[in-house]
Design the sequence.
């Protein structure tokens, strides 16, 4: 059995997903500007998303919008202008 979804419903779902992801990445960007030493654990608590989701967003943003300076333990985040 094949289930077809109305194109408007699919477009709406895709837009909500994209807007949610971009909004979350903007939130992470702002949090890193405010506190360059912010940890992934703190970002998880602030966003309410899973650790894997936050790490996926950071990986997507790394090298384009953000970069990590120093080690994971003592380093800090730098937002690329």
Sequence:
């Amino acid at each position: 059995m094949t289930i077809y979804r109305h194109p408007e419903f699919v477009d709406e779902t895709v837009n909500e997903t994209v807007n949610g992801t971009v909004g979350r990445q903007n939130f992470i960007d702002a949090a890193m500007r405010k506190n360059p030493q912010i940890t992934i654990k703190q970002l998880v608590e602030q966003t309410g998303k899973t650790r894997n989701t936050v790490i996926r967003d950071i990986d997507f943003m790394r090298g384009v919008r953000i970069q990590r300076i120093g080690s994971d333990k003592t380093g800090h985040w730098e937002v690329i202008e």
In short: The two ends are 50 Å apart (CA to CA). Helices lie at 7-34, 40-47, 51-61. Residues 7-34 form the longest helix (28 residues).
